[in-house]
Amino acid sequence: MDTWARTLSVAILSLVIGFIMSKLAVEKPVDTAAPAYSDLVTEIAEAPLIVAPVPVEVPPPEPQPLPVVFPSVSYRYEPVPVVAMLPVTPEPDAMTELEKQADREVVSAAELPVEEWPPEREYVATLREADTDVEDGFDSLEPGTLTRMTWRAGESLYGSSIPTPILVAEGVAPGRTLCLTGAVHGDELNGIEIVRRVMYSLDPEKLTGRVIGVPIVNLQGFERHSRYLPDRRDLNRFFPGNPRGSSASRIAFSFFEKVVRRCDALVDLHTGSFHRTNLPQLRANLLDENVLTLTEGFGGLVILHSTGGVGTLRASAVRAGIPAVTLEAGEPLRVDDRAVDHSVKALYSLLDDMEMYQRRSFWGTPEPTYYGSLWVRADKGGMLLGEVKLGKRVKEGDVLGTVTDPITNVKQEIRASHSGRVIGMALNQFVMPGYAAFHLGVETSDMGTLPESQSAEDIDHSVALADGVMDERDDSDE
Ligand SMILES: [Zn+2]
């Protein structure tokens, strides 16, 4: 093909392409809605701002002078609970009405102050580790000191008896001797803590007379977390003991002769037993005038009348002419700080009343409250769930708890048979029909009509007791 022809064909092809392109350009829709300038400005303004890191050179820090720090002490103030002082203890109905109106728990003035007293434990005693045997007597003790002494039961498996520590606060002036005994049942921990707090917060230089504190009477049980002695005997069924009797009887005899007979008054510290817990309360034989007088010194505490079982430390001491009471607080195998604290304050109140140690208090001593008591039982077996708190005032018919059959889902309510106060109760657990679940205290002012308060033991194991099987497992509180 010659040059002219090639040029012509290119020209024709260009025309054809140009025609097609022009056709296409006409077919293409024209964008008539082009963004206005103001729209573009808005779009830019609203677009996300993207910031890219720019390396900047940081100059090295200049050394600064260290600030001078002064030691400071901070104090924390507990809010004071709002209380309404009531002149008398109203009926439970009135209390419930008051609670409704106030929308909070209402406590009667008679039982308020013991818990609300300001803390008194400022003094911490220094212990002298003399380790003198109590058998050698207390005469060698220096006035105004706290001393660790030792009691040996003279009875053990390996020929050498276990030395049991005894704390003795010797006052500067002669006076009465108050004895505190803890863990006669080895699994009851609150009493051990109560003895420690009382003994170490007493200033012996301000003490008149003597305080003997035995934190753990049943050391063998305590070491095994058990209520009993190693032979499964309950030490608190063998007082005052017998030097030729069983092992338990000999231990009881030794303790009674060497320690208890040196006391002018005795407080035996216990807890509820076997999955039951107690509001701090005294068990006392109120038919004994000296015991009744002793109970009056404890201040605002719940007091139940009970003569005390055969062989208990309390009943044996009273029989020997030593006024004695049992202080029950909390449950076994646990330390209940609130119950311990309440009990310690009650014991300080007693020390003040016995003119042994002056208590600093601006509340005055509230009167103790005397109660008769009764147990409310579960009628069906099942899972027991408590619906009330320990210490709660209840009216007859109030629901105390429920028992639910785990298989049939049938639920039974346990209701209060009388109006009163929950002074002891079973912890949540599986119970059999007839199980004593709630201990109700019914206030009374007439000593003559005070019924004997039964411990859980009396109701749950009366058959064993009647058979005289005293050293078998029972559910005694004390
Ligand atoms: Zn006990």
Brief write-up:
The protein is α/β, with parallel strands linked by helices and 478 residues long.
Give a topology summary:
Elements: H1 3-27, H2 37-46, H3 92-102, H4 113-116, E1 127-133, E2 145-152, E3 163-170, E4 173-181, H5 190-201, E5 208-214, H6 219-223, H7 247-258, E6 265-270, E7 276-284, H8 289-296, E8 302-305, H9 313-319, E9 324-330, H10 337-353, E10 369-377, E11 382-386, E12 393-394, E13 399-404, E14 411-415, E15 420-426, E16 429-431, E17 436-443, H11 456-460, H12 462-466
Helix pairs in contact: 5-10
Zinc ion binds at residues 185, 188, 270, 273, 478.
Tell me what the structure shows.
By secondary structure, the protein is an alpha/beta fold. The chain has a domain at 113-369: Aminopeptidase, CATH 3.40.630. The protein is 25% helix and 23% strand. The chain contains twelve helices and 17 strands. It has helices at 3-27, 37-46, 92-102, 113-116, 190-201, 219-223, 247-258, 289-296, 313-319, 337-353, 456-460, 462-466, and strands spanning 127-133, 145-152, 163-170, 173-181, 208-214, 265-270, 276-284, 302-305, 324-330, 369-377, 382-386, 393-394, 399-404, 411-415, 420-426, 429-431, 436-443. The protein has a five-stranded mixed β-barrel. A four-stranded antiparallel β-sheet has the order 14-13-11-16, with no helix packed on it. Helix 5 links the parallel strand 4 (173-181) and strand 5 (208-214). Helix 5 (190-201) crosses helix 10. The radius of gyration is 40 Å and the shape is elongated. The chain starts with a helix and ends in a 12-residue tail after the last helix. Mean pLDDT is 79; it is low at 67-87, 112-121 and 457-475. Residues 185, 188, 270, 273, 478 line the site of zinc ion (ZN).
